[in-house]
Amino acid sequence: MKHYALMFSLVALTATATVAQASNLLFLSNSVLKDLDPQDADSLIAEMQTTLEQAQDFEIRHWQSAYSDLKVRIQPLITYQSNQQQCRAVRIRLTQPMGKDERYQFDYCRNVERWDISYTPAGSFDENDWQLLQRTVQRALNENNNGQPSSWTNHNSKHSGVVVPSTSKMNGGERCRQTAITIFDSHGKSSNGSYLFCLQEDGQWQRRL
């Protein structure tokens, strides 16, 4: 029964559909999720899917176990495209009284019916990588002409990326720019996509599409 609960818990966390897929994540076997009730697992799966489908980047969603004191905080960090799929990097924090917090980060990509865990270069990004990417996006949108690239490299993680504004237009009264972003992991594997950013009153560019 405990083995069944463990595998069910892994399925819940990764939002995958089968126990076979979850077996690739046995590093979670010491997680507080190992004792998750199967009904809680169903509830957590549903919350993960809803968050991935509806939440904005950096929006925090909370889930509470109905059978224990376990709490889960789910926060999508960035939405991007990889191999023509919509993907999201998601940070997950597990909290249980009298126990240590557990923190994980996974990437999920949208398939026909659901979001499934996937490997993309963004999945190995650390906080410094995200900050470098965000600063490069803001700088490129503020300073670059259309077609002019800006690049960044994290010499510690060996991750890098290129940001290229491509077109400019007005959209609903906002000044917007379509922008191509390519990121590379330390092995040279890449993901790329094109995104629309619009200038806000505070001077920051915010992604629209």
Account of the 3D structure:
The protein has a 5-stranded antiparallel β-sheet with strand order 1-2-3-4-5, covered by helices on one side. A 5-stranded antiparallel β-sheet has the order 6-7-8-9-10. The protein has helices at 2-14, 19-22, 38-54, 127-143, and strands at 61-64, 71-82, 85-95, 102-110, 115-118, 150-154, 159-171, 174-184, 190-199, 205-207. It is an alpha+beta fold and 209 residues long. The protein is built from 4 helices and 10 strands, in the order αααβββββαβββββ. The protein folds into 2 domains: 32-118, no CATH class; 122-208, no CATH class. Helix 1 packs parallel to helix 3 (38-54). 24% of the residues lie in helices and 39% in strands. The radius of gyration is 19 Å and the shape is elongated.
Structural class: alpha+beta
What is the C-alpha radius of gyration, as a whole number of Å? 19 Å
Terminal CA distance: 45 Å
- Total number of helices: 4
Largest sheet: 5 strands, antiparallel
Query: Widest sheet: strand order?
Result: 1-2-3-4-5
What number is the mean pLDDT?
81
Order of helices and strands: HHHEEEEEHEEEEE
- The percent range for strand residues is 35-45%
**Residue runs with pLDDT of under 50 for 5 or more positions:** 1-29
How many distinct domains? 2
> How many DSSP-defined strands?
10
Residues in helix, %: 10-25%
Shape category: elongated
